[in-house]
Structure formats: C-alpha cells, structure tokens
Amino acid sequence: MTRWVLRCRELPAMPDAEQAFRALFGAGRCTYWLDSAMVDGPARYSVLGECAGPHADVLTDRVAAPPSTTTTSTVYDRLEGRLAERRVEVPPGLPAELACGYVGYFGYELRAHDGAPSPHRSELPDAYWLAATRYVALDHLTGRAWVVELGTADTPACWLDEAAAVLADLPASGPRPGGRDPHPEPDPEPWLARPRDTYLRDVRHCLDRLRAGDSYEVCLTNTVQMPFVGAASEVSEEASEASEAFEMYCRLRRRNPAPYAAYLRLDDIHVLSASPERFLRVDAGGYAESRPIKGTAPRGDDAAADDLARKELSASTKAQAENLMIVDLVRNDLGRVCEPGSITVPAFCSVESYATVHQLVSTVRGRLRADVTAVRAARACFPPGSMTGAPKLSTMRILDRLETRARGIYSGALGHFGLAGTADLSVVIRTAVIHRGRLTAGAGGAIVLDSDPADEWDEMLVKAAVPLRALVVPPCDD
C-alpha cells in the first residue's frame, strides 16, 4: 500500500505571489492560483501551483444527456476516494488548511447527479479537479510561506530545492492589491444573452411565480458573451490566449481585490474569479461554515455618497429579506450533514465593502457529523443556495424555463479539498471564463415579492461589469 507524504520547506520570506506564479507555473497547462487578493477579510491563505510530476492526477465529469443507464462513479465518488487514498500527516509548522489535495471546480449543471437535471448542457466539463502535487503556500496573516510537494515515502523530494532556489531570486511580497479604480466601468449590456426587455419580462414572470407560492426567492441570472482575442504575437493562438488570460487576471486582482479570488488554467479553459462569497469551508476540527451574500449596492462616487449607500443597504428590508431566506436555506442544507443542534448564525446581514459594491453577508456554521467528509458536505449543499433561491428544486425548475443556456462554471463552486479533511470553496460569481476565443461571465440577482424589475436589471449590470473591468486597459502615463 502506498504511503503518501507531504514534504514542505518554509521560505525565509514571503515572495510576491504574481511573480512567483510567473516564475514557477507560468508555462504550465494545468495550473491554479487560489488567491486571497483581499486579506483583511475572512480569507487568510493563498495557494499557487500546478498539477505536475509523477503523482499528477486530473478528474473531470460531464453530466450525461440523456442520463446514462450504466453505473459509473461521479466526480464526488472519485474525489472522495483519491483524498482517502492520499491522506497524509501534516508536516509540523504547516497549517492543516494548506495540506492541499485537489484544486478545481464543480459546475452548476453537476446538480443533475442529485436529482436536479437541467435542460441545458455546458460545452465545458461540469467538474474539473487537479491534484495539488507542487505548490507554494502563503499565510497572509503571519507572513509565512512554504513550498510543498506531494510524494511517497520511498521517493525523495525532487522539486522543493528547485522551487526554493527560483523563489530566492524574486523580490519579497509587495503591497496588496487595493484601492478604488479610477478607470471607467465597462458596459456589459451589448453582450448580454438576454436583452433588457427579455430580462424584465423574466423578472415579472418570477414575481408571478412568487405570488403563486411556487417559490420564496428566485435567483435569476443572465450571461455576457463576447469575443476574446489574445495579444498579437509569433506564438500559437492558444498560447496567445493563455498569456492574455493570465494578464487579464492580474489586472482583475489589482482592480477588484476579493477574498476568494482565483485563476485556473485547465488546458484550454481559463477561469478568472473575483468572488467575494464563501460557499463552504471545512476546518481541521470538522466545523463547516458558509457565508452567503444577498443584498448588493454600488459604491458611491465620494465618501459621503459611499457612506449613504452603505447605510441604505444595511437598512433595506428587501435586502434583509433576501438574506434571511438564503440563510434559512443554508441552515437546512447544513442540517443534513451536521450534528443536531450545532448550527448557529454568528453574523447576520453584516455589510462588507468591495471595490465596486457593498454587500450584505451572513455566516452560518455547524459541526459535521463524524461520518461526513468535506466532499459529502459540499455535495449536500450544492448548488449554492444563494445562486438558486428557495426552495431549491422548485425554484431551479422556474429558472430552467427562463434561462436560455447552461450556467456552466458560473454559479458553481471553486476551491480546494485538503488531504487533512479540510476544504475551502467559493461561489463562482464575479467570474470570467475564457475558452477558444470567447469570454463568458454570468450575473444576476435575487427576485423577491417587492423586487422592482428595473432595479433588478441595474443590479445585474453592476455585477456583470466586475469581471470585465480587467478588459479596460488604462492608458500609459506620459
């Protein structure tokens, strides 16, 4: 039986994350950067690495259409099996949360594995997970950093020395991304799959369904789709797209820092996320936490207007109603996998501020039952309730009739499952997906009984603009 080991070496100083990624993983085809680009919030760690070396492993899944009659394992089953096989002792000094196992995403249509088939099919895999075999781990709270390599007891480390030597020649970590962006907001409206009249009609249909009692809250979404062209160069079209996708992500993290930001390169798929929302975290003690967001207001143009926007959001009965219904849904989801009586709501409708918006955020926590793994907990709560509405199944049926295409990676979950039983997954929002010359980005909002269709349209546009901000390249200084 293979005995897996996680070897690590602490670095003398924290390297600059962007330069470290470029130096170590910039040429890789299966790379990841789970990037706490805004670290004065709930996120603490960043992990950047690649799936490479003798223990590389890639797990993907596509929901069959029509459903297969053969008995094949799902990506959940395979992930759980691999994590159990590769479970390790965490090296002394390395936080358990940084014993990464697999990094990747669950797409929205993966819900079909649990009795919620969708009439739409994504052209991309419905799940994509990479073994985290070589990576750099950063603790932004303490300023500590490590290079980490997964191996077996009978094989020596082969990458740590090389990685440490490369990082030693890089400058130490610089200032964090942050600050308001003075550049104009992009206009997503010309690229939306459903134009204004159609979206307003769909909001009104949702209101009809709410009044009929078919749902309490409907999280309606739209999709931006536009051409994406890599920089002109002598390299191949695919390499050019990969280069420009990464540069776009670097601009995005500078202009819109977020606690659960991420960049994934999965062969020819590029995921650029500035997500502010935690779907599920499982810590080493077996506690699960979700931080649903409902209630959004754009930032003001000056300090007085910004403070007013924040206060108005905090006092909004509509936003509080949206948040309350999703908190109840998350409590119900966690109740299926947590010990009875352990679920609490430590924070309810707290206002958190990001580069372009204020949002209402709540925190729901519970202790997982002893027989529940992090993968099982994620499956029980998937898809994120903040992206469906309540109740989940009947509301998703309403959405399926209105939304004209698969959501794909958008509205799913992205992050990592660890080798010590931990997990940290974000909700895939404020995210651009680039694939073969096309960029897509989803956006939407929660429809409740007192929703105004025009206001819902405006809120959706604010959210849709976030991942597109990195397309607006500022002029060079004279």
What does this structure look like?
- Residues 196-463 form the Chorismate-utilising enzyme C-terminal domain.
- This is Para-aminobenzoate synthetase.
- Residues 170-194 are annotated as: Disordered.
- One of its GO terms (molecular function) is 4-amino-4-deoxychorismate synthase activity.
- Helices cover 27% and strands 29% of the residues.
- It has 10 helices and 21 strands.
- It has an 11-stranded antiparallel β-sheet with strand order 1-8-7-3-2-10-11-20-21-9-17. Strands 4, 5, 6, 12, 13, 14, 15, 16, 18 and 19 form a 10-stranded antiparallel β-sheet that branches.
- The longest helix is centred in the middle third of the chain and has 19 residues, at 237-255.
- Mean pLDDT is 90; it is low at 473-478.
SSE blueprint and pairings:
Elements: E1 4-10, H1 17-25, E2 30-35, E3 45-50, E4 58-61, H2 75-85, E5 100-106, E6 127-131, E7 134-139, E8 144-152, H3 160-168, H4 196-211, E9 217-227, H5 237-255, E10 260-266, E11 269-275, E12 278-282, E13 287-291, E14 293-298, H6 303-315, H7 317-335, E15 344-353, E16 357-367, H8 374-381, E17 389-390, H9 392-402, E18 413-418, E19 423-427, E20 431-435, E21 438-447, H10 453-468
Antiparallel strand pairs: 1-8, 2-3, 2-10, 3-7, 4-6, 5-6, 5-18, 7-8, 9-17, 9-21, 10-11, 11-20, 12-13, 12-19, 13-16, 14-16, 15-16, 18-19, 20-21
